[in-house]
Amino acid sequence: MIDEKTPMETWKQLQVDKEAVLIDVRTPQEWEQIGYPDLSTLSQELLKISVQTIFGERNDNFVSELRQAGVRPEQTVYFICRSGKRSMLAASLAQHSGFNHVVNVKDGFEGPADPNGITGKIAGWLAEKLPVLQPVR
């Protein structure tokens, strides 16, 4: 079973566990167009490793890219995506590959859409007003 934490719980854990790592598993297009968590005030770096392509095809090199990025099986690894679905896939892949402490960030970066179809207002990293880097518009 994969543990789940809210974005705020994740943020608080990243503050105290300096060995923990947050991995954004969305696509480069999402990072560039929507933004991503900013961990600079924690003196940490967000890792960006896509678990799927923009077309929904699985990244077969995902686990090897985790290892190449220096993520170690004994670390606590938090996975975030837009809504929490792809990050659950990423956490499952990592867990099945020997990563012992994986956590899915519940509701992801944007969370579900509100009645008007707008994300980032109800739940998720944006709704919890955690630090972000967003594209200049």
UniProtKB/TrEMBL annotation:
The transmembrane residues are: none
Which parts of the sequence belong to the Rhodanese domain? 16-134
Q: What is this protein called?
A: Rhodanese domain-containing protein
**Species this protein is from:** Commensalibacter papalotli
